[in-house]
Amino acid sequence: MSLKTGHVVGVNGNLVNVQFDESVIKNEVGYIKVGDTRLKGEVIRITDSVASLQVYEMTEGIKVGDEVEFSGELLSVELGPGLLTQVFDGLQNPLPVLADKCGFFLQRGVYLDPIPDVEWDFTPSRKVGDVVVAGDSFGSVPEGIFTHKIMVPFTIQGEWTVKEIKEKGRYKSHDVICRIENSKGEKKDLTMIITQPVKRAIKGYEERLRPSEPMVTKIRLIDTFLPVAKGGTYCTPGPFGAGKTVLQHLTSRNADVDIVIIAACGERAGEVVEILKEFPELIDPKTGRSLMERTIIICNTSSMPVAAREASVYTAVTMAEYYRNMGLDVLLLADSTSRWAQAMREMSGRLEEIPGDEAFPAYLESRIAEFYERAGKVRLKDGSLGSVTIGGTVSPAGGNFEEPVTQATLKVVGAFHGLSRERSDARKYPAIDPLDSWSKYGGIIEKADVDKVYAYIRKSNEVSQMMKVVGEEGTSLDDYIDYQKGELVDYVYMQQDSFDPVDASVSVERQKASFEMLSQIVLGSYNLKDKKDVRQFFNEVRQLFLDYNSTAEDSPEFETRKNKLLEKVEERKR
Amino acid sequence: MQKVYTKIDSIVGNVITVRAEGVKNSDLAQISSSSGTSLARVIKLDRDKVSLEVFSGAQGISTGDSVRFLGYPMRVSFSDNLLGRIFDGAGRPRDNGPELTENMINIGGPSVNPSKRIMARNMIRTGIPMIDVFNSLVESQKLPIFSVSGEPYNELLARIAMQAEVDIIILGGMGLKYDDYLFFRDTLEKSGALSHTIMFIHTASDPTVECTLVPDLSLAVAEQFALQGKKVLVLLTDMTNFCDALKETAITMEQVPSNRGYPGDLYSALASRYEKAVDFEGAGSVTILAVTTMPGDDVTHPVPDNTGYITEGQYYLRNGWIEPFGSLSRLKQNVNKQTREDHRPLMDGMIKLYSSYKDSLEKKSMGFMMSDWDEKLLKYGALFESRLMDLSVNIPLEEALDEGWRILSECFEPNETLLKSDLIEKYWPK
Question: Tell me, what's the ipTM?
Fold first, then answer.
């Protein structure tokens, strides 16, 4: 097949205009030849037989007249066994392999095979004569602790018949293991690897379901008060230094899902290095294996080319959907979606489109909605369930949530965990503001019970605002008790000591037990004579509760500490 | 490639356009006009229309001036001969020394492969207690100094340049007052630090475009030294001027502004510079300290705001000293557990007491009664400020820790400090 070609007629930042000779497909990939290197780009606009390419590399050295080859394919990722534990850039280049090849720096124009061609134990699940459609599985290989299903490409149309399929045995990932044919006589060779355009959502499931089961993060404030459901979406906006990334890292460690995909999009390289060095050493308590075995990292840090930053988010979500279709629960963490939006803004500016709010393009909202809509819980054809949960951080300019990216995100997510500067400055961890944040999902504890306790947080905040004006003297005793109850909830339940081995991650059972105790304390009434008495009582309760929080359940002191707390409360109960 | 073009189509701001063929993006050109020659850089190609950013500014350029394309991008000479030298924003000598043309390297090169980076683990000692003890500077860290016009940020940088335990210092000055340039030169010369310093200085009276080159020049040279195994500290002042220069070019190029006139790619522009901070496995490192003045002391201004999202913490320089609150070195926990066992607890303890001192001070100013405890705190606060916070204090970390214990012992009883008994046993001055 002869490749379609064109030549460069203009360069503006990372936007290159190309005059094409025959025809060109929107969003297809083109390569610009600069000397010996080929720079990858994507057609994002076609006007008057000039195609505008966003180039995923630095455009230094491109000149007018340089030859361009169009590939005829949309921007795609390769999916197959061997993705787990890998570290890719936004275009699915494996970074460690690239480092072996090119050394310290990211050399432009080098594109490597993302999936190593190694042998896997293949077990077929179909036989010759079976009819398959896109997304059907025809066999499986074991990948780490998972059964990796080998699927018919999601891009093919209509019904196909299996003509040939390899027997159980060891095959390389690029070997042809199955041949299929359709009614028109077209033939296709299938390997373990399929190619999927990143901007097209993977279907191949029976139906989408409502996200109902909570995704446990072992962070009390989230699981109890602001839950996230498997297959749901949530966002974490916050000013710099409020702990967005730390929160995501902890979630990526503790979340009770099968696979975690981390998309480090336009953030610090140092943070990715931390994951790279730490994860292989950490043990996943659920499986007893290294955490890295359930992780894929897509990393396009802030100094890497901007256009690839936009692609990295789609690369990540496509991989998530692929593993979902094997009946697994996948969590995608994107840090930060603002950088992705900024990449769109840069491109839009170069295209000289009419700008919207803060110069973001008018299609910002629909793109963000489209992305988050790729999350979901599905029932597959074999009846099993899979889900993609998406959690995105947002880095609003000046920490102001009124900006376009935060607002567009809030419209489409199911839970909002807003981090506040005030709470992070006061060293409260997690710094999620319980008053601003919300969740539409059901958590591990009945909503009615949670609301009763939540009410004290609101009341407490009101009283504390009032106290700033009228002073402690001007506050009634009842109000003051409510204030102290709210503070207690905040200190002993909403905050966690991330350095304490016990308190850093709390199991569902423990959360339920301690919430039960907490609500009894908060909903009870007490014999307290004045404010000093109130303060002292609640300080003591708080101290005892914190001691209880940091005691392991199997430790000999656990029961003593628990009883001490309960006795203290009982003493003054009315 | 040596063809000369003598017809300039348009001159807008510092950007000129000529019609030429075979020109590569980002290449340099030389423009000869009646007022001398200047370099220019290709910033946009549209068929045969080439837009160039003129380094020395387009003032005085005639439409008939000649433009000669050089066929290579912006470069800088790199060798040990750079040490002790001072250059301007276009890389020309500013110190009457010879021009350097050997071993030219491209500026603004590719980014480091994240899988080749290593976790930061070495502290850079500066002799300034507020940095060493409370917010340690770590090799490969990128930290801004958020400040306001009028604060002694350049004095602070000069002191760090003189005292920091690194192999090479690179000072990038952007929009510096001429006096400040002389101050840096004289101070470093006097202290003897000039011999391992390289300066790229753009002064306020120099052409704006040259301002945007300073970080790239400084960092390209720093990177090369680091690859040779050197520990390099890059000091930049002031990044707000750099951003303003970017803004000027963006507006001239009719780019849609995003926030307060700054271009939409401000974050990427800053990140590609700051991310040059790196610790190479098996070689040296680049550490960046950059002054960012906050217009109107407003941290939500686009420049400090975008900076904060990129860097690993920040120092606030206010009222002549580094604020203990708000200042944060995100990498300090990587290093401060290996220094001395009392480093971390003492750091936390002293900051907590200082915060109580601030509360007492507020109570006092509101006319409340001062308790014994308040009096103790007031005494402590004053000693803390004069003996540790003051920027003229120059003592190694260990001495600073001892000084901390001395201050505590002069103000409090051991059990009032909330420090662990075994530490008190060992370090409390007797």
Answer: 0.87
